[in-house]
Amino acid sequence: MPLILTDEEKMLKEAANEFLASNSSLKSFRKLRDNNYQSFDQDLWKGMIEMGWTALTIPEAYGGLDFGYTGLGQILEETGKTLAKSPLISSILFSATAIRLCDNENLKSKWLPELMKGNILMALALDEKAHFDPNNINSTAKLSGNKYVINGKKKMVLDGSNADYFIVVVNEANMTSFFLIDVKSKGIEIKSDILMDTGEYSSVVFNKVSVASENKLNIKTNGDSILQSLLNITSAGLASEMLGSMQAAFEKTMDYIKEREQFGNKIGKNQSLQHRAALLFCEIELCKSIVLKALKAIDNDETKKIEFSHLAKAKLGEVLKLTTNEAIQMHGGIGVTDDADIGFYLKRARVIQHLMGDKNYHLNCIAKIKGY
Amino acid sequence: MPLILTDEEKMLKEAANEFLASNSSLKSFRKLRDNNYQSFDQDLWKGMIEMGWTALTIPEAYGGLDFGYTGLGQILEETGKTLAKSPLISSILFSATAIRLCDNENLKSKWLPELMKGNILMALALDEKAHFDPNNINSTAKLSGNKYVINGKKKMVLDGSNADYFIVVVNEANMTSFFLIDVKSKGIEIKSDILMDTGEYSSVVFNKVSVASENKLNIKTNGDSILQSLLNITSAGLASEMLGSMQAAFEKTMDYIKEREQFGNKIGKNQSLQHRAALLFCEIELCKSIVLKALKAIDNDETKKIEFSHLAKAKLGEVLKLTTNEAIQMHGGIGVTDDADIGFYLKRARVIQHLMGDKNYHLNCIAKIKGY
Amino acid sequence: MDTKLNIDLENFRLETRAWLEVNCPASMRKPIKDSSEMFWGGRNPEFTSQDQKIWFENMLEKKWIVPYWEKKYGGGGLSAEENIILTQEMSRLGCRRPLFSFGIAMLGPALLKFATEEQKLNYLPEIVEGKIWWCQGYSEPGAGSDLAGLQTKAEDMGEYYLINGSKVWTTYANKADWMFCLVRTDNKVSKHNGISFILIDMSTKGVSVRPIKLISGKSPFCETFFENVRVPKSNLVGNLNEGWTIAKYLLSHERKMIGGVGVTETKKEVHELAKLNLECSSGQLNNSLLRADIAKFEMDETIFELTIQRIIDEDKSGKKASQLSSFFKYYGTELNIKREELLIQIGGNNSLVWTPTEENDGNAARKFCRSKGNTIEGGTSEIQLNIIAKRILNLPT
Amino acid sequence: MDTKLNIDLENFRLETRAWLEVNCPASMRKPIKDSSEMFWGGRNPEFTSQDQKIWFENMLEKKWIVPYWEKKYGGGGLSAEENIILTQEMSRLGCRRPLFSFGIAMLGPALLKFATEEQKLNYLPEIVEGKIWWCQGYSEPGAGSDLAGLQTKAEDMGEYYLINGSKVWTTYANKADWMFCLVRTDNKVSKHNGISFILIDMSTKGVSVRPIKLISGKSPFCETFFENVRVPKSNLVGNLNEGWTIAKYLLSHERKMIGGVGVTETKKEVHELAKLNLECSSGQLNNSLLRADIAKFEMDETIFELTIQRIIDEDKSGKKASQLSSFFKYYGTELNIKREELLIQIGGNNSLVWTPTEENDGNAARKFCRSKGNTIEGGTSEIQLNIIAKRILNLPT
To answer: What CATH number is attached to the domain comprising B314?
Structure first.
């Protein structure tokens, strides 16, 4: 299978690019931030839903387009360029994927269409520590009668305070389980932080929260393997957004050094900057390949999809860090002022590279898979 | 205590520089190599002995100058510049130091003056594996009557085939011991390899070699702590030679890019090369500091001497690798031909950085000392 | 060394120690937590504690605000040896600097070297007494690293200079009383030859200031605008059109400061923070890739500190000046950026928090962002590498 | 696609497979160990085994030495699709190339694009038949990366060109029969405009060759000297003074080759070698710092291979030519250097042995040294970065 976009995927990407060019910009990003860190723009979100982006990864059986993650990846790459804020990651990439991977048909039929239509928002409650560590979940679910009792403390729940439901990953008898829990359930306490990227991430305490057993998402399927698939998909999806951000930051920087003059010359004439720019170009070419490969490997269910999604998140984390640092440095004094937009990419980079595991985490996973 | 050379040390270094300028050169290095990898030049060695270099670290009680390792370090830095080949490292830095650190007065009185005068040569038999691992010595010594029986296989015995005696590091009842063994003893088998740096390194098999108990070098002193001190000193000493090589390779490269023209300009005018050269300059400044500090910490018996000598070998390994790679690259096509001398530094660099532990080995030691 | 002198110095040390013990309040011996605990003086001085005021006034009376300047300029007239002893004793007790001032660190040296005697007597005592808060007007919005490309012009109007233009990165221009400033006084000559060094009262009509917000949040930096500002001709320091000489003199001074030379802040080692924040097994960090990065970083950090020591020791021993300020600036700031990158990795989620909460003040993230300016301000890393390549390595231009 | 065509191609595949099974000797299906196992043809052909001779002759008879050239030039006249199938089937069986030849890879494409019909008919069939061993005369001792600065001159003497000068890095000039060569035919115009592309018989009077020894030991490279060498004017390819166009065309071709594109050698993964040579505990390398370097390297190596695949797929899909040969050359060779550095670390003492012994052939050390040339030959890494900056990123000059 060739490593290129299909014609449909290309069309989708181009349409997304056009739509976002007229509906999203760093100016809107700044406006949301200055408006007390507003999570997203309702109109933009409605537009995304109308464009069908929320339906891309929903199977046809639930009313979706079943277009695949390569498609969603193209959308996320485009949103990464303007840092468009929306519940696309929390509700669709994270939550809808989690539900889809599980096997509770009742919950799937009920909630996938709702998520797709944007009628409700969901948030994934997975992290528990300062560092990503999905293999050591301390939150627990215990059956008591025909109800489950959930206990635990979750962190980094993206868009947690906007959500109607949490998808909570817990340890049930040393296996992973997934529960759908109403945010208004008794025993839930939510506190939210604004992180460096202006995003809203919640800490959620589950204190003896009682959940009907019908709300358990994985019935027969092994929760550990669902979690593995979920992590592959989220890594590839986040890497797609990172790819978009990286390209935008790089382009803005190239534009800047072609225009800005110092010592009587365009600063882009400096050979040392040219060589650094050329190296960035090469690294970004590598990033394009691994993101596309990770997405396709998921859609085609290739055996190496685990390795490729780890590689995608690791490589993109590395190169996005390099790109944003170089972007600031090449912008010079302007680059470190809040007046300039380039800093937004730096700050988003450090959060998204950490989200769902940083470069070291993912490289370590690959080394373990390969047995060294 | 200020981190600078004393006036005596400066004078010693200058004298060494002058002496080597007229008695050693890359031309002689090439001649020795082309003459079937000759180990060293007898005349140069005699001159070194006359200059008193072999006496610098020998205590006055044994007829030496007791000048200290900072002094020997200056000599090694200078020999590193022209890659002067001599038994200074194998016989003096390695062997005489090992004997001096031990407490067998009879052997010290007998052999330190002989080594100093160059009447005999010795070689240190320590390594056993493909990688430096001094904490896992498999060679053994067992007392049998009033003799010891030595068994084991040693590798990377520098100048082993020129030596009259081996100083053999063995495991005796789970502690380190040092033995002085005549190379002609029964049960010894020597095979020699020429490595990439044109140096001669032997593999020595000790098969039931019988050694008089008087030839055990450490009587009461703990052999483990002697080994630790020996490793600190050899690391700092090798780092000194590396510092000299690094400076010479860097200077030759700067001279070259100031002269060589391409596209109608000196290639040193290229800003990207200038920035890389400036970075090398900075790194070499760091190298100067850590080598001097490691040597002084040994002479002053500072508590942090262990850390500093690890740092010296680690940092010098890193920067010498970078410097020699950049030297070749900046020389371009000429740099990879055997006609040019610059490649000698590259090849010496890879051997000496490996000798007595490479960068990773030493960094790992520091991390362990610091408890992380 | 003279024995008599040695005894005198030892006595000076004992007296100094005793005086400091008595006159430096306990709270003034604790490390400064943030800039709000610094006293900057000025026309509207703000003491943030009674102890701060006492400490400043005691030192002022003792003439130890700038102990090494001559007495006629308000200094303490100490010899170089005495000044070193005072510095040592203050750092032994942990005494804070009684007055933070660009007048002392930046303008003073320039005036001492280039000003007329009248100017020295006029400005230096006010600096010592903390009466005037000075700021520095070098960079301009359009010039960036090309400092000598500055465009703010001072026209000779006979009785005064008429100043128009703007400056950027003027630290605390919003609080300062006066600015020492580089202006263009000749357009027709090569750019380095048409610059002058001039002093401007910030309360003059036509001067306005706008604070700059950085990617890390609020900052002490400002933009300063000059619209037909009239400055007396007597405010010129040094010769007309020779301001670049003064600027270079001060810049090399500044580079050393930013590169971390002389700063004796005790920072926690990175591996200690890692051990507090990350999981270990049998004494080793589980995150072996991060461990490798930390080991590499600490190697360079330790050796860089040794290098500062070595160069200082060489300078003291009379070896010819080593021109290494660009090296310090470059390497020191690049290391600091690496340090901050490591720290946010070590902190994980906790170091990404931006808006302060009860548990988290958001300082880690803001310090991280702020560090990105280190390799730009005071001459970019690229400028420093150019200087090393040209002035030290003599590579062709 | 046309069903008929599909069936035809499937038949072609089956026939090809069957033919190869019969005609390719078993020993010719094993990977080539070193250059001594390659057949290069020439006036004095050296077969190193009977199988090698059989394989070459079978393929020659089948017209598959250069299967995709037209039949009139000695090629097999295969369509692009058929040629892909043949390549796939050969690589499936592991068949060696029957003939190694710069004539096929380098000169052929130039002749096909720029030569006269007469020249094509004259030279191409001899290339296919392996009768003439060609070498390439581009670089000169004084020019280095500045290829267009070449000084070897060809003077128009009416009936012939008189050639004086020298070339360097001419691979196998000591064994080659002819050289395709860049010479200066006009000194008065800008350097790119005075170059011509000419063919020289190495047996002509005045041609001499000196092999070059590299830091890795012996090499196939030579220096070639021309002293009053007379070359017929009919040996000129393309127009006079337009040789640079031909050179550029071939260079971009060469870059792809050196960068590793199209080379399908199966290399052992670095981590596998590490596991064979280094100690592990609970499945992890004890040397955690080296482990980190390996993980980082393999990440880049895997993704670089994917990138080659992506670009090839994009080219095939008809996306406009991506001009990425400089990227391939740069990144591929830098990766190879990193790989060799890792390998000598992994091998320890064993990879440092230089003179061959019974246990150790010294190839690790020599391969390591040889890799240092990769980022220089065929245009230095710096040249490639310049090209990317200028032609792809359009940064100002």
So the answer is: 1.20.140.10
Strand boundaries in chain C, DSSP class E = 134-137, 153-156, 160-168, 178-184, 195-201, 207-214, 217-232, 236-237, 280-281, 284-285
**Neighbors of chain A with 3 or more C-beta pairs under 8 Å:** B, C, D
Segment (H or E) for C67? none
Q: Say yes or no: C264 and C370 in one domain.
A: yes
Cα D348 to Cα B358: distance, rounded to the nearest angstrom: 9
Q: How many residues does chain C have?
A: 397
Say if B271 is an interface residue toward chain A (CB within 8 Å). Answer: yes
The answer to whether residues B228 and B362 belong to one domain is yes
Please give, rounded to a whole number of angstroms, the shortest distance from the CA of C288 to a CA of chain D. Answer: 6
Q: Are residues B195 and B136 in the same domain?
A: yes
Q: What is the pTM of this model?
A: 0.91
The partner residue sitting opposite D395, judged by closest CB among A258, A279, A293, is A258
Assess if residue A78 is contained within a domain.
Answer: yes
What percentage of residues in chain B have a pLDDT greater than 70? 100
* Residues in D lying within 8 Å of C, measured between beta carbons: 284, 288-289, 291-293, 295
Residue B359 CA: distances (Å) to CA of B125, B350, C330: 22, 11, 24
Residue D162 within any structural domain of the chain: yes
Residues of chain C whose C-beta is under 8 A from some C-beta in B? 269, 271, 274-275, 280, 283-285, 291-292, 294-296, 298-300, 302-304, 306-307, 309-310, 313-314, 316-317, 319, 324, 327, 330-331, 382, 384-386, 388-390, 392-397
With respect to residue B336, please indicate whether it lies within any of the assigned structural domains.
Answer: yes
Cα(first)–Cα(last) distance of chain C, in Å? 47
- Nearest-CA residue of chain C relative to D292? C289
Q: Measured between beta carbons, which residues in chain A are less than 8 angstroms from residue B272? A: 271-272, 274-275
| Among chain B residues, CA nearest to C324 | B282
Range of the domain at A241: 223-369
What pLDDT shows up at residue C319?
A: 67
Q: What is the pLDDT of residues D24-60, one digit of tens each?
A: 999 999 988 777 889 999 999 999 999 999 999 999 9
Kindly report the nearest CA distance between residue D298 and chain C, in angstroms.
14
How far is residue D45's CA from residue D132's CA, in Å, rounded to a whole number? 9
Q: What is the pLDDT of residues C108-143, one digit of tens each?
A: 999 999 999 999 999 999 999 999 999 999 999 887
Residue C369 has what pLDDT? 97
Expressed as residue numbers, the domain containing D358 is: 260-392
Q: Which helix (H) or strand (E) holds D46?
A: none
Instruction: Work out the average pLDDT over B275-284.
Output: 98
Contact assignment for C145 to A338 by CB distance below 8 Å: no
* C144-163 residue pLDDT tens: 778 888 999 999 999 999 99
The residue type found at A130 is A
Q: Going residue by residue through chain A (372 aa), what tens digit of pLDDT does each one get?
A: 899 999 999 999 999 999 999 999 999 999 999 999 999 999 999 999 999 999 999 999 999 999 999 999 999 999 999 999 999 999 999 999 999 999 999 999 999 999 999 999 999 999 999 999 999 999 999 999 999 999 999 999 999 999 999 999 999 999 999 999 999 999 999 999 999 999 999 999 999 999 999 999 999 999 999 999 999 999 999 999 999 999 999 999 999 999 999 888 999 999 999 999 999 999 999 999 999 999 999 999 999 999 999 999 999 999 999 999 999 999 999 999 999 999 999 999 999 999 999 999 999 999 999 999
Residues C388 and C272 occupy one common structural domain? yes
State how far residue D289 is from chain B, nearest Cα, in angstroms.
6
Which of A4, A281, A286 lies nearest to residue D303, judging by beta carbons? A286
- A364 with C144: Cβ contact below 8 A: no
CA pair distance A345, A326, nearest whole angstrom: 11
What is the rounded distance in angstroms from the CA atom of residue C96 to the CA atom of residue C33?
A: 11
Q: Do C96 and C183 form a contact (C-beta atoms < 8 A)? A: no
The pLDDT of residue D6: 82
Query: 10 Å Cβ neighbour count for D319?
Result: 11
- Chain B, chain C: beta-carbon pairs less than 8 Å apart: 116
Residues of B in contact with C298 (CB under 8 A): 366, 370
